[in-house]
Amino acid sequence: MLSQRPPRPPAAVPTLRLTIEVPLTTAALDTLEALDALVDLHVIALGVPGTVPPAGGAWPALPRPRSSASDERLHIDPGARTIVGNGDPIALTRLEFDLLLYLATRPHRAHRRGTLFARVWGVTEPPRSRTVDVHIRRLRAKLGPYGELITTVRGVGYRFDGTHRVVVAPSAPAHHVRPLPAAGR
Length: 185
Fold this sequence. Notes:
7 strands; alpha+beta; 4-stranded mixed β-sheet
């Protein structure tokens, strides 16, 4: 008869504890969601020893602090040429997008209509029409509550204010702005 050995005590399982600090941005929240999914995958699919799903079988999600201010900002992505406000895409024409991007990347300065016409439209002659004004009016209408970020500077042109309510992605291509023509032409 074979003698039975007493069961061995379970070996000590090494534990790894990881703390990650990330700033609260949209990308950081996406990272937290990815980490949460990875933890669920590891625990559920691989059956980590010693883990028991809570009653109901669902693992609780990691807590994610939410900032309502970041959800209410206007997001401008020059590389993708997209505008998102309050989580909804805003459709703009090419010129409206270029005009908004030009103003948003040069905030708190009064821009003359002629300069806007030269830089955004690429036309060297100063406008004799209301082209810039009409485009600004349409842009404000499409931007809804963000339209108030474009301020009229009476007798001069326009200024972009409220940069705390706007996020411009860092991938701004240089081709969206035309150089000013050389003086004397």
